[in-house]
Specification:
Distance between the termini: 29 Å
Largest sheet: 5 strands, antiparallel
Structural class: mainly beta
Low-confidence stretches: none
Shape: globular
Strand content: 35-45%
Length: 146
């Protein structure tokens, strides 16, 4: 094909927040969300194989009584968020800059010990306390989401 000789509309979509069709589950605001092999969104967990990390839910959506795909959910694809440290992970300042793996939809860890499937979900940028007072880390998810 020849190169462009006039303007071409690419229909840019900024992609900071995107909507995905939700599986038949209740997804909570602030949870780590992944695409199942079916393509529908659901909570990420190391016990489920073949997931693709999508981002962080920016709203709570209950599709547990519906069929997969009946409802959509908005998911943040960039930014930094505070997540709880998984049992056995006590972060120190030396962990800043390290990648973290999802343990559950709100717990992360730097070690792969105890994880069945490995899903990198971000890089630690700070040691902080979660909104419910637990030890946590702020992670930047940019470039980890599909």
């Amino acid at each position: 094909m020849p190169a462009l000789t006039s303007s071409y509309e690419t229909f840019e979509k900024p992609g900071l927040v995107a909507q995905y069709r939700l599986s038949n589950v209740k997804q909570y605001k602030g949870s780590l969300v992944a695409a199942l092999t079916t393509g529908y969104a659901a909570s990420i967990t190391h016990t489920t194989a073949s997931l693709k990390f999508l981002g962080v839910a920016v709203e709570t959506v209950d599709n547990s009584a519906g069929a997969a795909g009946d409802r959509g959910i908005l998911i943040a694809k960039a930014g930094s968020f505070i997540f709880k440290c998984a049992t056995g992970f006590t972060p120190t300042i030396a962990d800043i800059g390290k990648e973290v793996y999802a343990n559950t939809d709100w717990e992360v860890q730097v070690s792969v010990t105890g994880l069945t499937n490995l899903y990198k979900v971000g890089t630690i940028t700070a040691i902080e306390t979660t909104s419910n007072g637990q030890t946590g880390v702020r992670i930047r998810i940019d470039n980890y989401c599909v």
